[in-house]
Specification:
Helix content is about 70%, strand content about 10%. It has helices at about 15-30, 35-50, 65-95, 100-125, 140-160, 165-175, 195-230, and strands at about 5-10, 50, 60, 130, 135-140, 180, 185. The model is unreliable at about 220-230 (pLDDT under 50).
Length: about 230
């Protein structure tokens, strides 16, 4: 029979504020290099404040690991984006005689890389999170997550943001259903419609933005028609 565990958060404002300010200062002094250690120390502080059944979570990640991973990703992405950008710029000049289209395509191609990197980052965090000595984990499914996320993003865009709550729910469920605590797989319940109410202010803003764009794009055409068909 499953047992429900009460989870408390026992963080204190003063130690957190002191740690945040001190690590932020070190990050500025080191021109941003210390931010990997800053994120590690802050995450360790946050994890220790979360206490299911009065036992705190433990984060065992290290700043040097994040820094090394950043350097590797930077080299790979720099080479990949550099080569792709050169190809796109050449193709854009050949087809359109401008480079604007190439930069636009390069920006679109960067979106899958963001989803891919975010899933890998989650795997890193989960693999270094412990509770009572038992490790969390996330399945190696970054490629599938990227394809799934792009599909959800496409549906959200063609509905002008109406399905944004659905995309948020589906992506979170994809990750949660592939998360393990020891040998036990987690499962996310609920329905995406439960997010509609919290998302209403964002959806209304999104809709107003698209309507304003549509209205603005309609004004020039009416002006042109009047100038063409008006009296001589």
């Amino acid at each position: 029979m499953a047992q429900l565990l009460k989870t408390d958060v026992e963080g204190r404002l003063v130690p957190l504020l002191s740690l945040s300010i001190w690590t932020a200062v070190l990050s500025v002094v080191t021109l941003g290099f210390y931010r990997f250690w800053m994120k590690t120390r802050l995450r360790r502080h946050f994890w220790s404040a979360i206490r299911p059944d009065r036992t705190p979570l433990e984060y065992v990640g290290k700043g040097i690991e994040k820094f090394t991973g950043f350097l590797i990703a930077l080299v790979i992405l720099a080479l990949l984006i550099g080569v792709v950008a050169l190809i796109l710029v050449y193709a854009s000049f050949a087809l359109f005689q401008e480079e604007y289209e190439a930069y636009l395509i390069a920006a679109v191609l960067a979106i899958p890389l963001i989803y891919f990197a975010s899933y890998r980052a989650k795997r890193y965090v989960y693999a270094r999170t412990r509770w009572r000595g038992i490790r969390f984990g996330l399945e190696p499914a970054a490629g599938r997550y990227t394809a799934y996320a792009m599909g959800q993003l496409f549906l959200t865009l063609i509905t002008m943001g109406v399905l944004w709550p659905r995309m948020t729910f589906k992506l979170e469920k994809f990750r949660t259903d592939r998360t393990f605590f020891g040998t036990q797989r987690l499962n996310q319940g609920g329905r995406w419609t439960g997010l509609i109410k919290p998302f209403l202010p964002v959806l209304i803003s999104f809709g107003s933005f698209f309507l304003s764009l549509a209205a603005r794009s309609g004004f020039p055409s009416r002006g042109i028609l009047c100038s063409r068909h008006g009296p001589d």
